[in-house]
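Researcher: Structure prediction, please.
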Amino acid sequence: MVALVARQSVVIKCNMQASVMLGNYEFYYGAGLFCKLTGQKPDEDIRPKELKEFILPKLSEFSGENEKERYLVKLLMNYEETEEYGEEMKELLLWGLREDKVWEVN
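Model: Predicted structure follows.
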């Protein structure tokens, strides 16, 4: 349930281009989605700080194909990760990496 809420939150924020990421759960889904868009393959068990460092170089150079992708970059760039980590975060990262209904709220 937490995973679905985090996914829906990121999608809605990018669709509306409003708000900020509120936690590592949203961060992990958003980072996974960004990695899918850019063809990156992070380690499944990557910790928050390392995940941010992993995506940071691509974040700064990514221009995006549309406003939603550009807003996702803004959310990720402005997010300050915490040390919090749990198995659901791995699930969210993988969900983002495998997303086939990008920007669709379901």
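Model: The chain has a mean pLDDT of 94.
Researcher: Thanks, that helps.
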